[in-house]
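Supplementary Data S3. Sequence and structure tokens for construct A.
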Amino acid sequence: MQYIGIKKEEWDNTLEQLLLSYTIFANVENEFGLDYELIRQEDIERISYNRPKPVTSLKSFFLPVRENVTSEIIEEKPRIILGIPNCDIEGLSLLDEIYLDNEFSDFYYRRRRENTLLISTDCTSIKEHCHCLSYNIHPYSSGTADIAAINLDGTIILRVLTRKGEDFIKKIQLETTTVDDTIIVAVESSHQATETLLADANYGLPDYKKTGQQIQESKADIWQKYSSRCVSCGACVTICPTCSCFLLIDKPGFEKVKQMDGCQYPGFERVAGGEDALFELHNRFKNRYLCKYVWKPKKFGSIACTGCGRCIEACIGQINKNEIFIEMVK
């Protein structure tokens, strides 16, 4: 792994130059919290590093809520997404497995992936519902992202993780500072400190495999109890970095529109004859967790819940899935 150090001022100047040839999105703090914004020159100093986590998941950059998949492709500038937490990076690993499948590759998704440079950020703090480590996901990237960044006392330390990242670094010719063992130790110490915070905050939460087992063995009563507050708004599936169900809608003129869908919406499994296996709310509610912790792990190599906690934060009914899983193992 290659480490590169660059003074924050030089890095900001580099980003300013990159705006000439790239579209850049980065995490910016505003009155509503932390989220991605389209970066202009005057926004560069506002970019936030090492803070979890943007309101919007990375998924939205690759899977639009609605798109015409028969329309002409518009050529766009290459883009950089800066400040991605590793929970979203790991979520993208699953989407890659689904949409970059050798037999059924999604052309639109592939073009977006190839056109995007991913720069993740190491989390040096946690939010209330962060629980990535419980599922063996670290609060820092070691793969899938092209480059990882951490701001240490005014110096941006970059870890180059992929060939695409290497090519990018060579292309922009950074004026770098020396990265010695002391700095590497400081980066690793920061990683360990964040992991300690996560471990302490999520004591008692079962791991990913144990959670799947508990869901399979659970009775209907626990799902009826927690789903009683569910209003089927679909916020959990919409904001989740790995949920990716969609409808393909036929339109006049042989157009086809891909519309994101969600298993928490009434009628999600209703068929033409009117039958609906998920008509009852508690079955629909349980279905989401069966998908995430049982079915997808059997089909894919990447896990389907990365512990970001956004579904808990977005829930109108204030349903905390972690409370469900902790109750199951008692």
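Construct B, processed identically:
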Amino acid sequence: MVPATLTKRMLAEAIGTFWLVFGGCGAAVISAAFPKVGIGLLGVAFAFGLTVLTMAYAIGHVSGCHLNPAVSIGLCVGKRFPAKDLLPYIISQVAGGIIAAGVLLLIASGNPDFRLSDGLASNGYGAHSPGGYNLASCFLGEVVLTFMFLMIIMGSTARLAPQGFAPLAIGLGLTLIHLIGIPLTNLSVNPARSTGPAVFVGGWALGQLWLFWVAPIIGGALGGLAYSILGAEVAESPTSPLERLTQQSEAVAETADRIVPEPPK
């Protein structure tokens, strides 16, 4: 299979990030509090997880389905992604997030009760934290949750991991992360997801946007570094079940070759 060109991969990342922001933030803005049948926190968490799960199957073979500058940086630190492609990926992801937020704003504005001042699912801390959490709590939460997200991504896509199940692990992992983090900050772990709504909300959302770049990037880089160390140890360990099975099979084959002579020609 011939790898996709950088232009195609950038387009895939933009489309995928569009779906993540439109689907996740759209669920929060349009569906979370819909009278009597609103999906609430649980529904929004699943919406974000499902956007990543569906896009992982749709474009994972094209671009790797990062959809997140913190993920791209973490994979680069973990030596899974080339540094030369980092900036184009980040530009594409941010562009996709901004376009998605703009489309969501156009749709939501069709409801006379909609108010942009409600935040358009922007991320925030302190007075703008859904649970009233302070800056330190929100910063630490974003770092830890992004760290764990990278561990899930790198582990589920590792060479020795079960094949074909990575999108499920990543999508469900992001769902769990949102279940934990929505009360903290509306949950980011993704600078592109935070940038999209903040561009249109302005004011406090832009003023607090720095946290949702700095904390996820720190968490992503630490996660990529940690798993690169852990993954190397697992891959090289002679006690790995797969490695033991391979070594045993090779040993049996070598013994058989010695015991059973080749037939005369």
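DSSP finds ten helices and no strands in the chain. Confidence is low (pLDDT under 50) at residues 235-249.
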